[in-house]
Amino acid sequence: MTLNAGAEDFFKSHVEDYKTEHYESGYRSFMSVRQERYLAEIDRLTFNTDEPRVIEAGCGPGYMAVALADRGFRVSAIDTSDGMLGLTRTLFASSNRPEPELEVGSIEDVPFEDGRFDLYVSAGVIEYLESDDRALAEAFRVLAPGGYLIVSITNRFSHAGAFEAIIESAKRQPILLGAVNRLFEALGRRVVRAREFRVRKHSPRIFRQSVERAGFEVLRDAYFYFLPWPHPFDRLFPKMSDRINRRLDWLAESKLRGLGEGYYVVGRRA
Predict the structure, then answer these.
(1) How far is CA 9 from the centre of its chain?
(2) Among 54-63, 168-177, 205-214, which is the least confidently predicted range?
(3) What's this model's pTM, rounded to 2 decimal places?
(4) How far apart are CA 189 and CA 191, in angstroms?
């Protein structure tokens, strides 16, 4: 089983757009908020070595990998896209950081030996697989005993996701998509792209059980990203979306936390 072929082609063919849209826009995105949450969780962890080893499974353009290197980790990373790995190399080189160990690879077949890492992080990948089990088994395998795992999913019960099927269907209508993109271009926004593949939405409760079944003790779990309207409307109104998104962060600690679009688990290998 491998990464959804449509998803893999989509990301490989839009490498630069992905980096610019989600990490360099100057506004919060689902991906940048997820990274903020991951790093806050990582800062709470304790390791038995001054230079712990981390693997990022699905490193994308490399922003998480750089942040991990800045925290003193020895970084290894994999991605199915040579283009994403190239962006990661460039990002490290431009800041004079030592280049991480980079390999082309899938999170279902990690090209590193057993028990090598103290921390495993993966964001925005497992929802493009047909199942969680093999990826979680690989995470368990490459972690040393006592090593930590942080993995996120897209919450099936988020209000924002309720409109996704309608929006994705509309984006596949050429006339409508053309009209929307003319509006986006007139406002100086990046165009909207049709998506021909499915993002697998998870039940957080069931995902947590899957993590536990894979051999991890769950230390913490949390929801994030509470924007009241679905994508791509956050890009149409980026300043307003950014302000509202920040003001709604408190929901993560409330009884309404289950409305968050994203959910992650922090676990420890037995």
Answers:
(1) 17
(2) 168-177
(3) 0.86
(4) 6
